[in-house]
């Protein structure tokens, strides 16, 4: 088994592209204009979580899914044993046969996770319901769509929009395709080229701003 690779990111802001379009028929909707969310739209979702009962947990879930390109099944299965607080690293356990990896955690993520851990029960799972059970994939999907409606989005959104948003955000901050492949855990690079064309020798100079 290949050892997971550590990916570190630094701080220069770029913009997610708006030219990518994808039209997909949706139940009850005419079209879906695109499959990702912009950074501003993710901020709007987080603002909506602040009006809810589990504001900190839900905002942290959105942030983690976006920054680490998590599928919803990977997100709800996150455990405290995946976090190394001493080194600010997150072990990302991928689903669907994808490659696991180790990601650097930013300072605000560390603070959010420490607070969540202080406020949580003894559950091994990071994101739990009031009953102490892990948040379900279906529950988070429904919450995402509900927050999207409250934000005024005119198309249905899903947690996978956050994974796509991560890919486009990193690509626009000059992460090359191989590095992006490692970050998202893709085994097949053809799944990665949707975000960016291969650009060698850029990994160490990737500009990034969450």
Automatic annotation (TrEMBL):
The keyword Transcription applies. It holds the Pfam family Phage_integrase. Residues 32-208 form the Tyr recombinase domain. Gene3D superfamilies: Intergrase catalytic core. InterPro entries: DNA_brk_join_enz, Integrase-like_cat_sf, Integrase_catalytic, Tyrosine_recombinase_XerCD. Keywords: DNA integration, DNA recombination, Fimbrium biogenesis, Transcription, Transcription regulation. Belongs to the 'phage' integrase family. PANTHER family: PHAGE INTEGRASE-RELATED, TYPE 1 FIMBRIAE REGULATORY PROTEIN FIMB-RELATED. This is Tyrosine-type recombinase/integrase. It comes from Thalassotalea nanhaiensis. The lineage of its organism: Bacteria, Pseudomonadati, Pseudomonadota, Gammaproteobacteria, Alteromonadales.
